[in-house]
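Example complex used in Figure S2.
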Amino acid sequence: MKLFSISKAVHVPKFKEAAHVNTIIDVDAPKNMVYSLSQQHNMKCSPTVKRGDRVLVNQVIGVGDNNSIVPVYASVSGTVKQLTTKIDLLGNKVDVILIENDGLYEKEDRETFDYKTLTMDALKEKVKDFGLIETQNLSNRKRGLQLSFREKARNILINAQESGLYGQVDAYLYNTEKEDFLRGIEMLKHFYPDARLVVLSTSDADSVIGFTEMLKHTGVELISKIPTQFYHDMNLAARDVFGDYAMKDTMVLDAFLLPALARGVMDQRLTHYQLFLVNGKAVETPGIYKVLSGTTLDLVMEKAGVKNPFRIVAGNILSGDAVFTTDSPINRGIRELLFLHETEVSKEEEVNCIKCGRCADVCPVGLQPYELNALVVMRDFDEFFKKRGGMCVECGRCSYVCPSKRHLLQSFKTAKKVKR
Amino acid sequence: MENKKITVASSPHIKANLRVNKIMLDVLIALIPVTAAGIYFNGLEGLLLILTTILGAMGAEFLFKKVLKKKHSLQDLSAVVTGLILGLILPVSTPLWVALLSAVFGIILVKEIFGGLGQNFMNPAAAAKIFAVVSYGNLIVNEGFGDVSFQERLLGTAGGNLGEASIVAIVLGGLYLAVKGVIRVRVPLVILLVSFLFSQVVLGDITILAGNASLYLIAFFLANDYASSSITNGGKWIYAFLVGISAALFIGVAENIDGAYYAILIGNVFAPFIDTFFHGKVDTKKGATA
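Predicted assembly (710 residues):
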């Protein structure tokens, strides 16, 4: 009974607990690779290669001009065919580099270093060079992982919470990358000897994966039973675990980037593949797909046997964006690709807001979405930010519970883009 | 490559069951016992009155949208709900043309002129009722219930406004809405509690207000109109208190038998002001779990 209580958790009736997907499907690298030079939200790299150049695996092909932009690497060896522009999955016009894959995978050597001698600034510089992109900070979307590292941190939260309702990717982490995951924890202990390490996981991950067993002798705490779902914002996760919303002495790391981080810092190896969940009714073989970065979406669709998708969603079903084209590379940081059949897509039209206040009830940060939406509709962006609209974590719950189907999340995303 | 068509739209991409017309349907279902009791105790004229107000409300909305060259919005059922509630808060003896006129007033002047669904600043049904009472006072005579025992008032008697026949029926409908999650229990709870306390402490007899069915009707149905009540959860407490205390004063002290409907309008007008005190509180502090 929720007569008196205000439950912040959204209950999506059709889906029970999301299943932990175990099948891992490798997609072979194609002949023609496409590398987007704008992997991060609204941030661009400039190319360092030109047409006709031969590139090797691990070679930098694009660099950014400020500290928060991570470089782009070639994941295959071959010849640069063209530098051009393309529409990416989310509808933005981006610069791309087309590389013809020669199938040899010759590697460029990377400099070696001993991570134990690194200072914090040097570590940040190295982490930036791995090209890893943080996805958990939704109000400041897709910044480089190096910005998560702090000089000093009392608490370190390793966030393994998955937002997916169509299945969880975490099984991969614990089955295949377990070694690197544990090494990553060792590495964090080296850099932050006094910090308290906590892993935040989904409530059923423990019984399915045996998390407690895995973390037994590491001295890392496990938290799995938090009522609120969908911690894909680091401030929210820090608030609910440590009571530290501003993250003054808390550092939040994405658990799915930790193995790659360990490989990079300890072995000087780059991680060129991307993992994501492919699911939905239009998919024949759902599962975790592993692709080399630079692979385009239609190859994944071919491999997964996608038939007549009505809508393709990049990201969570509640907050993800609809995909515009299928012949573009899959952006880094996309953890879920849903190919939805016509029967499972909401096609209802927007009607007047009836001011029922359900959106405000489910907002995890306590905003008033109906009011903010009205401000965006009137193009009053200053008032929008005055009413703390910028704090929206883009979880999409308000849009889901809205009986009038107002495009709440979409209007907040628009407002933030306009202002930025 | 074959030419595939994919659609692009804003999130959420998943279907949700909750729609405006589902909420309105729930309200209609909750009003079934009230309507049935009203017709059972007051006779078939009650049915005629309800049909008049419902058709009047639907027709007014349809015509208004037609004049504005917009698509009609009858499928959201809000006009039906307004019409039905208006029928239930008028006395059975109301001339049908007055009922029709007040339904048209409620829909056009209170709801549609301000922007239609969700934009009305006061409850259309209550405003239409007050319009009828104020404009055609001699034709709309609410005779009250006379000297009937409290038990009879609970179970049902003829007299008063159509929907006020049986308190049990109203509470039954209200509980359905509460269990379905359509209304927040705090609103009817505070309204009833405040007026009962007032009745017991100030007037000295709890049955004066507890036996007035219009209080239950506004507590469960009219005060919970989403558009005209307080939206914020904190504001709802104060809004409900304001409605409860005004209703208690109007009915108990001023001895106006229709006082509850005036109280609703007072509460509606203050609701946006009450809400301003509860806005913009961002939830950054929360107890740590670790």
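The longest helix of chain B spans residues 20-42. The mean pLDDT of chain B is 89.
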